Amino acid sequence: MLSLKFIQDNPEFVIERLAVKHFDARAMVGQVLALYQKRNESQLESDRCKAEMNQLSKEIGQLFKEGKSEEAALAKEKTVVLKERIRLFDEEFESIDAQLAQLQVQMPNLPSSLVPGGRTAEDNEVVVQGGVMPVLPEGYKPHWELAAQYDLIDFELGVKITGAGFPVYKGYGARLQRALINFFLDQAREAGYLEVQPPYVVNEASGFGTGQLPDKEGQMYHCPVDGLYLIPTAEVPVTNIFRDVIVDAKDLPIKTAAYSACFRREAGSYGKDVRGLNRLHQFDKVEIVRIAHPDKSYESLDEMVRYVTTLVEKLGLPYRILRLCGGDMSFTSALTYDFEVWSAGQGRWLEVSSVSNFESFQANRLKLRYRDEATKKPQIAHTLNGSALALPRIVASLLENYQTPEGIRVPDVLVPYMGCEIIR
RNA sequence: GGAGAGAUGGCAGAGUGGUCGAUUGCGGCGGUCUUGAAAACCGUUGUACUGUGAGGUACCGGGGGUUCGAAUCCCUCUCUCUCCGCCA
């Protein structure tokens, strides 16, 4: 979320930037400015009364010690009025503060100046296109047919056990999952990321910290008895490692990678989007998360984009990188690059990674700070994350792009992990 | 699931109604000494909000209460630990 101070100091800038996300913030900003001032006035009054109260209490204690109980009783009477005033000012403060928090949470992150102003996915800017389009054999198939033909994935079995969107991977299908996870984690480690294994279930505070709660509540599986949520991405538990933490500036950027299963309700999805592996309720992903110095976070973002590029290139998949437009980017992001790979059997691009700089938006919620080397004061850090990579669509693309009449070829980098060069 | 114990500053660990934002130790930072380091000694060392500033206020797991005054007493919630049971 944006800090109140920032909104107060830059109201017009906030309104102008949020317009790029097609969010009209004028009324909200106006309310924030008015409430912020009122809140501070209440605090000032309350603090004054409390100071007086503290002083009085000390005096009363002193009087008792000296045995002047009559004077003490007199002083006690004065506290009654003060107490009531404190109560009123505090109530007012609490009420205004809650309203402010409400407004704050509703305001999206400001898009960076690089963000194009479009409205829909059509308006995203293709910044890089790479790889070579495969030449498919006669009678090529989409991945769900290939998965059935080679007995790699059983979608119906998943329906029996759980429901649609929870496939069962079998044989080389299961092994391919494991191969990709290991490949991605090994690559991340070599690139300097610390591997962690986070919980797959998080509490409410964590959901709030990364911005899933309160507004995206419906997208997560929820265990109300325990007040816990299944993670939609490892971003949530991993970024929350740093909630309420003050890190040393010299440790920045902090680079963390984690594999996790991800759970998404995906309410409202339908049609070709959910066919096969295109959109699942449970899927595997390796996520990279970085904590960066505010002056260096865009350098970090570029590094992450370059890193993800190496992954799709090593897998030999045709890809493109999109810079998301204001209308298509997420609530929490300041700048997002999406990676798409070509799904030759379906003839469409599939999103396999989203790399974002959240600047201070998450860090404000998380109270994630670094200690400034010069001033020694805690400052809000920047957070970034990206998929590196999400498995199902990579699998879809691999199966389709590498299909041959003899079987599915295994990309060279995966051969050591798969123990074979072709899936028959 | 049953029984008990506990939650204090980066960590360890005091503190049972008043001058306690909190003794002390460790760690960190600065300094003296040293060719350098260690040791020793001295000093310093939380966060947030607010105020132009001096300063003020809040915070001892969360919330509520008693009191002129709460880290300290009461209620409640959450969490952690130990033992037993069950178990990957």
Description:
The chain is of the alpha+beta class and 424 residues long. The protein contains 13 helices and 19 strands. The chain has helices at 4-9, 11-20, 26-65, 69-106, 143-149, 155-161, 172-190, 204-209, 235-240, 297-314, 361-366, 391-401, 415-418; strands at 125-130, 153-154, 168-169, 194-196, 201-203, 222-223, 228-230, 246-248, 254-263, 282-292, 319-323, 335-343, 348-359, 369-371, 378-380, 382-390, 403-404, 407-409, 422-423. It has an eight-stranded mixed sheet. It has a three-stranded antiparallel sheet with strand order 5-7-6. It has a three-stranded mixed sheet with strand order 8-14-15, with no helix packed on it. A hairpin with a 2-residue loop joins strand 17 (403-404) and strand 18. The radius of gyration is 27 Å and the shape is elongated. The chain binds one RNA strand of 88 nucleotides through helix 3 and helix 4.
Structural features:
2 domains; Helix Hairpins; alpha+beta; 424 residues; RNA-binding; single chain; BirA Bifunctional Protein, domain 2; 8-stranded mixed β-sheet; 19 strands
